[in-house]
Here is the input.
Amino acid sequence: MLKVAWLIPILPLLGSAFHGLLGRRLGKAAVTAVALGCMLVPLVLSGLALLAVQAAPGRRIDLPYFEWMAAGSMHVPFGLVLDSLSSAMALVVTGIGTLIHLYSVGYMWEEEGYARYFCYLNLFVFFMLTLVLGSSLPLLFVGWEGVGLCSYLLIGYYFDTELASAAGLKAFLFNRVGDLGMTMGMMALFAAFGTLTVGEILVKAGHLGPEAGFGVLTFATLMMFVGATGKSAQIPLYLWLPDAMAGPTPVSALIHAATMVTAGIYLICRLAPLFLLTPITLTTVAWVGGATALFAATIGLFQRDIKKVLAYSTVSQLGYMFLGLGSAGFAAGFLHLFTHAWFKALLFLGAGSVIHAMHHQQDLFRMGGLKAKLPVTFWTMVIATLCIMGFPGTSGFFSKDEILFLAWHKSPGLYAMGLLGAACTAFYMWRLMALAFWGEPRDRHAFDHAHESPATMTVPLALLAAGALLAGLLGLPKIWGGSFAIEAWLEPALTFGRAELAPAAAEHGGDALAWGLMALSTTVALAAGYTGFRIYRRGPAAEEAFAARFPALYRTLSSKYYVDEAVEACILGPARWGGNLLWKAFDVIIIDGIGVNLPGALTRASGDIAVLAQTGRVRNYALGMAIGAVLLLWIFLK
Amino acid sequence: MTTLSSILAGSLQGYILVSLLLFLVGLGAVLGRRSILIQFMGVELMLNAANVALLAFARFRGGDAQGTAFYLFIIAVAACEAAVGLALVVGLYRHRQTTDTDRADALKQ
Here is the structure.
């Protein structure tokens, strides 16, 4: 199996090339077969890779292929690495990716650019797998940039609408800010360790004492975290993700919920030993994550667009993952990444199914009563909603609770943020469910034509629902009779052979505290969820009453705290003003005027003088020749 | 007066003087007249002034064959040049209905 491990990323690339070059000519059936084939084979291979990793010593297999860059003291190998972290992540990418490819077949069947869509989607999987499996930071960065590119292309898939292309551009530009941080982080790591191979960096970091964490290492990890905030939509670089919903819904599920946006979490897990050496960075990560979790959840409370609710929910859930990472719970953060991938992908695909049925109606206030019309969508979305709100026994319950438990040990303030965020999450999710599936249909025409989606869409929904329910078993906590298996599985990759770095937070506090925190968060979430359901059970009238009573609060929340407007006023406005100034003062006057037009004008003026000598009369030229001849004679003969 | 007497006696200076005068007449015709035909004749005069000078030097160098050969060449070249020049005259007239070179001043800005 290891001999063909390189096929895992390469096959989707070949598929993408196939769709791009031949897809339109060969038709939809061929595109479908190739697209699914190029996902299924890597899925099987990833599964085999996981088994191979389990058997390997140290749960780590290096697969160097050739030297990629050699310049001075820098040597970057081109290779893949299979360890407990990357093989698990590859399985998530290919597994969820396969289901979403299958779903896309049904969702995109009517679309004009069917082949183009799968070209981008397969290309995305290729870059994502490069990011996950790459053995060096530059290779990881190639994947990192590549998924950003595919995200841009897919957000702007409906490029004939201005909204979509602007949203794609916004995503790309926000990611550039983060990428700058990541690049600087890589430079700092190279300066500190003289290598960019992840394995070597971590081995060298292993010889450092705890006092090494200050200075360059803190700078490097902070810059890496800046990169992660860009890709994973954390404060302050989260603004692009809600706009990214302009893309097709399966794209939102795959890229903007399950895989690409978790790249930041993956990056930090990859470099976990470094982050453990830098407590300042870890604390920053935790607070940024906690703040994002709460902040985005409150924005989600009053969004009317079904996809916008889910988008802010994703930002919020990513915040929880960072909260977990920052609390030194790398396994908990990764577990939440894993469970979130299932239930958020399911929520997006369910929303896509609703939108599909309602003829591209995304406004929750125009839906209602769809429970009976879309039974499969309804029941799978109920499961996903229970997961995300943390209903006991579901996957989200275990992962979120573990994070909150760790956050409590980090700081009660962080725990409070997480708890409040969880309450908001339960509220807006049940608001969404009640508005979409219960109550009277508010758009009679669309309701009458609504119908359950085809099997290619409902089968992935059912499979994702099963995954969402069961994914939490990997992280069954000790107090539930489990062993928090995922931590033991990831341990070699996260600590890199430094047992003393293994987070011990779960030890102190005792079972009573764990039970207490669990009971508290569950009660809060259930209460908030029930409130949300009760209020919106009969439709959006209650919200209008609330808006009338607290107009300022409602407007602030539904306008997303005016952050976009603030960015426009504080950053874009001055930038535009400065650009105008440079254009009118520097470009027009100095470059165009003094640099270009002035020499031109001088040349023209001197030409105007010289042209007086040109009379056009033969006799005058002949006289000139004669005088010249005489002068020459005089010079030579004198 | 020795110069004048030697000129009258047929010395080299006399021939050169004739050549010079002939050249100046030709130059004056080219520079002073506006008709392209007259200017063309001036050019021919200047060529022949050069011929006179060549032959005179050839003779006073003791019958040098080089000068004579050059003279013969110039005659041949002048014949060709006359054909080309007259063609130019006809061409100018066809285009401008004039032989006045001052009116053919398209080279002016």
In short: The radius of gyration of chain A is 30 Å.
